[in-house]
Amino acid sequence: MPVKRYRRDQSEVSCCLKYVIFGFNVIFWLMGLSILAIGVWAWTEKDTFNNLSRLTNIALDPAFVLIVTGLITFTIGFTGCVGALRENTCLLACYAIFLAILLLLEMTAGILGFIFKDWIKSQATNGFQAFIVHYRDDPDQQNLIDWIQEKWLECCGIEGPKDWDRNVYFNCSSEAVGSREACGVPFSCCKQKANEIIKNKQCGYDVRKQDYRLDASHIYEKGCLQAGEEWLERNLLFVAGVAVGVAFLQVSQRPDANFDNQKMPLRVS
């Protein structure tokens, strides 16, 4: 009498999981493609591809960060899209590995960030110093630091406005060579005046001169390092919630534990 035995076939993905993974990763794929295109466009505008000497501060280049972020997002999203649509278990396994690596890196960064707070603070200070030194050299870095000082943290310099003495244009000694910005600060250090529609780009001129009568409400006196720490303390729950949400989203999309368990008969005489 023939004996029927059953085994599990794990070569297919459930229909529901297939389209959930596909839908999510279409969004990620398009986001990655858009970010990558913006980064490449920014490099093209700066003529970086034809002048590789501009890559001396590549780690601080916002366009480079966009290119790397877009490329990683594009690769993961594309792998998930094709793997889910074609039901290719090899691509889905690669997709799961990518997500596991990202999750591990996020957890590691969170733990190291808590343990090595002083080291991270030192690195942030060094990075901001490089931004100040090269403020006029790269329009992307200039726009980034202006956004940080004016729109985000409402601060000026690292410890205060005096840190802008590190920049050759804002250094007080540059007045001898005809720099109009000598002993000043960028316009992003200035506070927005009431009923001011268009901000005065020269509002930071001469504000660090000894004979200049500085109005306390004219520029931001707080350094960006202190302002960043205070912002993080105020928004700690929000940042932690976003991190947990991203981690949960990554775990929920892992397809390696959700294969369709269809039973296929195997007859053995």
UniProtKB/TrEMBL annotation:
Organism: Homarus americanus
Family per similarity comment: Belongs to the tetraspanin (TM4SF) family.
The protein's name in its UniProt record: Tetraspanin
Alphabetic keyword roster: Disulfide bond, Membrane, Transmembrane, Transmembrane helix
InterPro entries (alphabetical): Tetraspanin/Peripherin, Tetraspanin_animals, Tetraspanin_EC2_sf
Alphabetized PANTHER family for the sequence: TETRASPANIN, TETRASPANIN 26A, ISOFORM B-RELATED
Pfam families recorded: Tetraspanin
Residue ranges of the TM segments: 20-43, 63-85, 92-116
Membrane topology, from the record: Multi-pass membrane protein
Subcellular location: Membrane
Disulphide bonds in the chain: C156-C172
Top-rank taxon, per record: Eukaryota
Signal sequence range: none
A GO-annotated cellular component: plasma membrane
